[in-house]
Amino acid sequence: MRTTTQFMNAAAMALGADLDPAALVSVLAEGTPEDRLTAWMQAGPAGAPAIPALAPLLDADDPEVVDAALCAMERIAYYAGRPGADAEAQAVAAALAAVLDPAHPKCREVLHRLSLVAGDGEVAAIAALLSDLYLADDARLALLRCGTDAALAALAAAEPLPSPPTPLPQAHAHNDYVHPRPLFDALDNGFCSIEADIHLVDGALLVAHDAEEADAARTLQGLYLEPLLRRVRTFGSVSPNAPTCMLLIDIKSEAEPTYAALRALLAGYAPMLTSFEGDAVQTRGVTVVVSGNRPIETISAEPSRLVAIDGRASDLDSAVSPALMPLLSDDWTSLFSWSGGSPMPEDERRKLREGVARVHAAGRKVRFWNTPHRTDVWDELLAAGVDYIGADDLGMLRDHLLSKQEA
């Protein structure tokens, strides 16, 4: 592989020459900020072969690497769009369409670059995004920019954009990351509370239930924080007309170092996060609540925070401020024996309702885990005023809550 200096010299000497995609990626991933700047500015001639090589950099933990990769893709698209380079433009467009993934947080940015060179061959891939509430406007602009008969026909044939899902403030996506489309499946069903388990592995916060399942590609930043940020920037909230979205982060690894990494990461997303200054709360699009291995003393000592703490039933009579501990969660099976299928025993129903009332009187909200996945259990939770109802079957809970709203 050529050195950074050799790569730069080659780019400067022969703008039209083929550039080594591996060398370009190496500079963008590992070079100094100055090297990155020079590399992406000279990336145009790298052409279509560089696009699949650059795509993995969009998942990098370092946002400067991600931005550099996007800048390189843009340069490549602009360069391919020069007069007389139709074959090159077609190749770059096909390469960009191949990495266009509506579930990826950088899909909008890739779509913009595709729109610079898209032709009839890319119309179908772009038109497929017209039904996506988040990407539809960008897809329409991309088709207009393409301007071919096929692109305009796709626009004319597009169905009206569906209405956003009805927000369901009580719907909590338990272990959300196990779904085929983490975060997006829950939001498409109207859920306003999302749960993600995290492990600190080699300095990265990876989303998984157990440490042995942790995958370096599934980061908290990539799966949740980046797409949430883009939605808040687009809609003003995570979803249109929705309240703040609770992101319940369950720490599975050691509390203190994991929280230290989490705190540093969240600082980069402060504009979308609910903030806490003593008892003062500034609510924004996403509210982070830390559960699991909670470093309670550390968080409590912070005068300014971007997280709150998930309490337990033992904190029911605690004098801790609701601004610090706005939620109490506990294991249903440790508190109640009833699992549905028959009327709830009156003594347990009374215990549930009185407990929820006491929590609410203290200014907190209530959640249980390990609740039986049954509609009759959900009905008792709703009747008692439980604030968050967890589900693994997102559609089943959505349909049940909507039926209650319509009744």
State the main characteristics.
15% strand; disordered N terminus; 407 residues; globular; 44% helix; nine-stranded mixed beta sheet; 18 helices; alpha/beta
Summarize the structure.
It contains 18 helices and twelve strands. It is an alpha/beta fold and 407 residues long.
Query: What's the pLDDT, averaged over the residues?
Result: 91
CATH fold-level label of the largest domain: TIM Barrel
- What count of helical segments does DSSP give? 18
Count of domains: 2
Main sheet attributes: strand count, strand direction, barrel closure? 9 strands, mixed
What's the total number of strands?
12
Structural class label = alpha/beta
CATH architecture classification name of the largest domain? Alpha-Beta Barrel
CATH superfamily of the largest domain: Phosphatidylinositol (PI) phosphodiesterase
- As a whole number of angstroms, the C-alpha radius of gyration is 25 Å
- Proportion of residues in extended strands: 5-15%
What sort of overall outline do the alpha carbons produce when their principal axes are compared?
globular
How would you characterize the overall build of this protein?
The structure is a single chain. The chain is built from 18 helices and twelve strands. The chain is globular. The protein has about 400 residues and is α/β, with parallel strands linked by helices. Strands 1, 2, 3, 4, 7, 9, 10, 11 and 12 form a nine-stranded mixed beta sheet that branches. Helix 16 (about 345-360) crosses helix 17.
